[in-house]
Write a structure and sequence with these properties.
The protein has 264 residues and is an alpha+beta fold. Helix content is 16%, strand content 24%.
Length: 264
Amino acid sequence: MRSVPLLRTAVIVYITVFYCLAFLMPSPAVAKVYIYLSPNGYDRSDGLSPTKRDYGVDGPLATLEAARNLIRQIISRHGLPAGGIVVTLEPGIYHLSKTFTLDHQDSGTPNSPVVYRGSKAGKVTIMGGVNLPHWHPVTDSVLLQELSPAARKYCIQCDLFKSGISHFGNIEHQGFGLNVPVQPAELFYSGRRMTIARYPDSGYLHTGNDTGTNYFSYAGELPSGMEQDPGLWVHGYWDFDWAESYDKVASIDTASHIIKTSPP
C-alpha cells in the first residue's frame, strides 16, 4: 500500500525535471529560408512552396508586400536566419498599386542577406502601371478639329476612367535648383515611354533677342491654333546652357512673336 504514494511522487518529480530541462534548452539556429511569389499566388498562403497544392495553406504568395511582412514576422519571432532569406519571384507580371517600401528592419547582413530575385532571368516584370485596353479611334468632331488633317486618321483615344485611373498628376514648375514635384502620368507602349505632345517633334527652338523676366521672343511661326491652347508649357535653357526649367505659358502674341510665362 505504501509503494503507491512513493511511485506517484517519483513520477511527479520526473515530470517536473523534464519540463525544466525542456524550458532551458536553446532553440536551434534557423537555416536559410526560401519564400516564393507567383502572379497566381495567394497572400494567405505560407509562401514556402513555389507551387500550390490542393490542401492546406501551402503555396506561393502573390505580392511583394506579403513577402516583406512574412520576413518581418520571421525576424521578430526567430531572429535573422543564419543563412539569410531568399525571396524568389516566379515568372510573370507583378502589379503595384502603391510604392513598395523597405526600411532598416528589412535589411540582412553580409552573412545573412535578404535577397529578392527572379527565378528566371528576364521573365519577371514589376509594373507600377495599369493596362489600358479601351482604345478606339477619335470620333469627336471638336477633338478632330484640334488635330492636323494629316494626323486625324492615325489618332486613337482611351477612356482612363474605365481603367480605374482618376488621378493623372500635373506638369509643374520645375527645373534647376527646384524640388521635383509629382510628375504627370506617363504612357508606355511596347516597353517605350511615349512623348507628350510637343513642338517641335524633336530638338529645340531658339529664342529671339527680345528676352526678359517671364517672357521671350521666338523666331519663325508656331503651328496655327497653338496660342489658343490653355495647357501649354515650355521647357528650355533660358539663361545658362546647364540650367533648365519648365514654365507654364501665360500667353502667346503671334504678331510680335512674344511668349509670356506665368510667374513661378
